[in-house]
Amino acid sequence: xxxxxxxxxxxxxxxxxxxxxxxxxxxxxxxxxxxxxxxxxxxxxxxxxxxxxxxxxxxxxxxxxxxxxxxxxxxxxxxxxxxxxxxxxxxxxxxxxxxxxxxxxxxxxxxxxxxxxxxxxxxxxxxxxxxxxxxxxxxxxxxxxxxxxxxxxxxxxxxxxxxxxxxxxxxxxxxxxxxxxxxxxxxxxxxxxxxxxxxxxxxxxxxxxxxxxxxxxxxxxxxxxxxxxxxxxxxxxxxxxxxxxxxxxxxxxxxxxxxxxxxxxxxxxxxxxxxxxxxxxxxxxxxxxxxxxxxxxxxxxxxxxxxxxxxxxxxxxxxxxxxxxxxxxxxxxxxxxxxxxxxxxxxxxxxxxxxxxxxxxxxxxxxxxxxxxxxxxxxxxxxxxxxxxxxxxxxxxxxxxxxxxxxx
Length: 408
Known about the structure:
By secondary structure, the protein is α/β, with parallel strands linked by helices. The chain has helices at about 5-15, 35-50, 95-110, 135-140, 145-150, 160-165, 195-200, 235-250, 290-300, 330-340, 355-360, 385-405; strands at about 55, 60-65, 75-80, 115-120, 180-190, 205-210, 210-220, 260-270, 280-290, 305-310, 310-320, 325, 345-350, 365-370. The strands form 2 sheets. Strands 1, 2, 3, 4, 5, 6, 12, 13 and 14 form a 9-stranded mixed beta sheet that branches.
């Protein structure tokens, strides 16, 4: 069985870690900033060296293809090159580099494939500069309105469309990912959690992506002087929110143990040390495979009283998604490849969102996870061993070849 080159993969990882290097082991490589453009240019340069055909679509997604022997839809694999602020050197980019290494192995080993093989770079997956996350794959899969996305602005007031035009990567809509031109999509990603490491598994065979719901919750009180207002006369919005957070965590903790929930965003005002807070806002993010459990989460939120500790309470759903179940044949193809390679593995669902979840509505898709050391991700400490990166690349390679042997 032919494997990928560990040395070549190490070179790829080290090279791309220079683009947006923070100096502390991580990267900041926001969509269409100079470091992101440098990474894109290096990716294209390497693909040109391999004589692969490069196309871009009208959202700046890059498609690089090795031709096949037959006129069949391509087998695609890839991920993204953008990062969060002070992110790690593996999130997203490893999915691109392992896909590229798999194709480079096919080319250098002169392995003939019936299908074309395409490496995809999705634009603005993180949504760190332009919200929302998974913007471009979402547009391609009709999850987001394109005009609305083009008009999204970053913190400097630059629109996504302006940055896209300036990048030089705006291509033609006819080059978009479509069921007509692609038969399958694979995405390798770091787990971004501690499970594979804790269970000493080489690979996570991903069955789907957890459903989730995200709510905004607000309390409104009355600002007043911190030194002159008696305690029993206060309408302290922060004090009220403390009760709400405690209530939510207590009640959600009674539901399924697999449920995860987070009060992630927090803001309030006037944010002056001598003034009683009159407004506080939080977000609640909850994720679970079973839609009935998500419904129970929503019931808990809707059970909040209209007033607490003298403050009004309001809430609204910001977004939600249903659980995505990947096609059985794709999961089986990945599992078959892992077994053939002799790696240990675990069937699992992803708690984080990925481009593959949108593409799965268009063509059969699946994902491969590799362990994250200590479970860290979206931070400069993010790390996955070269050995695990290499094993992941081998799984992508073997899955490509397994899919290529199947009927179109």
